[in-house]
Specification:
By secondary structure, the chain is mainly alpha-helical. The protein is built from 3 helices and no strands.
Length: 164
């Protein structure tokens, strides 16, 4: 009997130990479930916040659009006509400028170079003719000087002959 009492006590202790272990596991499971539920609640709250943000955005958007001062149909037509007119005027100005610059650029780079060269050739020719004129003038001056010197030399020769 003493053995049976020991075994009963052992069984009671084991069962009480099992109960304690079961309670610990139960508490751990409950805590894990609470954490899991908290994580789910956080996810749901972020989803709810996002949906609330979206709905508040659309509500705010609609309320702001109600505050807008929308033009009447007549104003829209008038503004549209004004814009089209301005576009046509600007297009015409740009077209005219394009034609003008195209006419200026008709000859292109080569044409401008040729024009510049002809002008520079004309100016060089005028300089050359001026130089030629001055050369001729110098030659005539030299010719006159040569004639004078030849007259002088001939008169000197004549005077030398007289002296002999």
């Amino acid at each position: 009997m003493a053995n049976s009492k020991k075994s009963n006590n052992d069984k009671k202790q084991k069962s009480s130990a099992n109960k304690v272990n079961d309670k610990k596991q139960y508490v751990e499971n409950v805590e894990a479930k609470k954490e899991n539920n908290q994580a789910k609640a956080d996810k749901k709250s972020t989803k709810v916040k996002k949906s609330k943000e979206k709905s508040s955005f659309t509500k705010g958007f609609k309320s702001e659009l109600k505050k807008v001062s929308w033009p009447t149909g007549k104003q829209v037509v008038n503004n549209t006509i004004a814009v089209i007119f301005i576009v046509i005027v600007v297009t015409a100005v740009v077209f005219c400028l394009d034609l003008a610059f195209g006419a200026v650029n008709k000859y292109g780079i080569e044409g401008v170079k040729a024009l510049v060269q002809t002008e520079s050739n004309e100016s060089e020719e005028s300089v050359v003719t001026e130089v030629n004129d001055t050369d001729e003038a110098e030659k005539t001056d030299e010719g006159e000087n040569n004639e004078k010197t030849s007259e002088e030399t001939s008169s000197e020769e004549g005077s030398n002959e007289n002296q002999e």
